């Protein structure tokens, strides 16, 4: 337990930059801790403000996501309605096509009937022609025989009553035959005209019906095309909404990641503040104890001087000796991290392969900020902490893959380092690490085109916008 407590104290000293010299507390160290506490409180305030801003952004994003989902639901309903209309329209078009096919069949039948009528007309015309010839012959015969008077002569020329009866019957028969021929002739002509008119009227009606059906079909096809265009537009809108929702979801995840990181940073700052306050209390106690010791030594010296003055006439020598004995003091030293270049060590063995700054992104194909530098390290290369600090994140991050973030308080300033695309992680959030400590292994996880270490440095806490990222090379 004592060994563990000693280790924790050593870690605390490493993180907070506190120094002791023997049993003497340095006033400069106390002032430094006071400044550090003030800086940490300021950082806590900034972190709370950032957390509030991120909570607001997250709430706004969730609101936009809800609106997007409602709009998606509306568009989906519209697409289903259009699909129903398309299905009905397609069925209507199929029905019209069947009606048009049936009408075409009717027209074909009527055309066939017209052909039959033409044959019948041809036969009727022949028959009418024959009857016309017969009637003409009959009329010529009647004209030559004197017409109806000859019929009387035939009857009056009878030799007997029986002959009269026979002659009368024959005349009636001939007259009936003539009448029948005329009636049949007229009937054939009437039938010919009626059939011809009926077929032509039926054909005209069916053709008119066909034209109407084709017009209706054209309207339905136009409606179908319009509905198809509407559906395509709605699908395009739906794809846009789905893309927006995905972007909002990713942004929300990044905000949640940032919330976790800020919470870890706040926890680390609170821990550092508590440690600083604790160490300040210890230093103040040591200062009080040292002041009390010096006061006691002073009183003891004065007492000895008084006693020696009474005991001997060598007051000066005794006073000198007493002064010599009471002049012991404990010097104090303070160590502060070096400033500027040299704050960090190279985190993994390998050459720099990509600089900090704007570049054409190898995956997304757009120009954007490369917020760190890349080190060409093969998978499994040991990863070292660039400086002493507290791990605030150790896990998967979108785009970064396996990632470690460490917050450092160096020379009164807060820095955050990020190590991405790792193959393994050997530390956990909240853990204190020392400079050079093995924290994992490099790799090729996340959005990476090959094994390497992506290393970022942020002045202050990490933020998703990379607005406080700086070129890491200035710290080596």
TrEMBL record:
- What's in the keyword line of the UniProt record? Signal
Q: Which Gene3D superfamilies match?
A: 6.10.250.3150, Glucose Permease (Domain IIA) (2.70.70.10)
Region named Disordered: 36-80, 184-208, 276-346
- Name any one GO molecular function: metalloendopeptidase activity
Residues of the signal sequence? 1-21
- Name the PANTHER family on file: MUREIN HYDROLASE ACTIVATOR ENVC, PEPTIDASE-RELATED
| Any one Pfam family match given in the protein's UniProt record, by short name | CC_PcsB
Which residues does the UniProt record annotate as the domain M23ase beta-sheet core?
Answer: 369-462
Q: Where is the composition biased (Basic and acidic residues)?
A: 36-49, 57-67, 276-307
The reply on keyword Signal is yes
Question: Per its record, how is this protein called by name?
Answer: Peptidoglycan DD-metalloendopeptidase family protein
Q: Where is the composition biased (Low complexity)?
A: 308-341
